[in-house]
TrEMBL record:
PPR-type repeats, residues: 67-97, 98-132, 160-194
GO-annotated molecular function: RNA binding
Gene3D superfamilies hit by this protein: Tetratricopeptide repeat domain
GO biological process: RNA modification
Annotated organism of origin: Selaginella moellendorffii
Organism classification: Eukaryota, Viridiplantae, Streptophyta, Embryophyta, Tracheophyta
NCBIfam families xref list: PPR (TIGR00756)
Record's keyword terms, sorted: Repeat
Record InterPro entries: PPR_At4g14850-like_plant, PPR_rpt, TPR-like_helical_dom_sf
Protein name in UniProt: Pentacotripeptide-repeat region of PRORP domain-containing protein
Amino acid sequence: MDGATVAYWADLIRNANDAAQLKRLHSKILSGAHSSVYLSNLLIQMYGKAGDLAQARAVFDREAGKNVFSWNMMLGAYASNGELEEASAIFTAMPQRDRVSWNAMIAAYARDGHLAKSREIFEKMPHKDLVSWNSMVAAYAKDGLAEEAREIFERIPHRDAVSWNSMLAAYARSGDLIKARELFSQMPTKNIVAWNSLLGAYMEAGDVAEAERLFHSMESRDEITVTTMIRGFARHGLAHKSIQAFESIQSPSTAIWSAAIQALI
């Protein structure tokens, strides 16, 4: 099959609205002898996104020329639909794994709260990349496990903004404002995510004065910044300050309007 034909069918598959439409396209591909490993992999991926794991598995099992992408697509389909037992079985059976395979399993276990299994896969990974390092820090941060997150963070060979922001989020969620502020001051670059994370931590801890000081020192603000302030002020009985924060925005978004209305209820 020539490249133009593959591209034609691939475009139709990507734009399918649901599993039923995918099945119709799949049937036409088979009847016209247009099948290829690339299209099979794409069908597995899209069936997975549509939640039709039976069809995804049928395509996978029927494909004689499976490659590492085929296995990763099937693994991803199971993982994204919360079928960890099946995802693990695919991972175990893979003739070869790449970083995508390892990272998919790390993320799948972490997403479902199985941090011990996620860590086990992570430690077995032969060649860790920044995605795997950051995934583990973020997983621990999500549960407020700052010490575990910091242990991974310190081992990262080369950190990026995601590494720093995830570690900051870990301290923020665990309520350790001293270490959060200390880490914030050490960050080589501070993006809006970092500022918002620290801002939210101060509001959550009830240190409204420090949150307000931080807010006024920010060079740029976004929707999350303003809604954090509006809701934070309201939660601490400072409705008038919620209004002031709302009025500091020239064109409030729907989310900001909603936060302001809730603050006045």
